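Appendix B. One record, verbatim.
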Amino acid sequence: MTRRIIPATLIASFATAIAAAQPAPTGDWVLNLLRASMETKKGVTLHVKGESLSMIVTAIGDHFVEGRNQQSSRLVVRIASIDAAAMA
């Protein structure tokens, strides 16, 4: 019984260590793209939970990005909820 528990425990601990070492899904690539959009004043399309949202980035916070588009003067999106992004 003990012989089966030890390998399973080691595998679980290695899997946890590997998962912790990998970057979060919303890593630096999202922030770099948002900063580039803000600096160049180019539009960016954010894909959030199956919806597309086009905007120009006006501010970047710790956990959110703020922007505007033709329909809305102020849009706030949580960075953690961004699935994909593309700059025009």
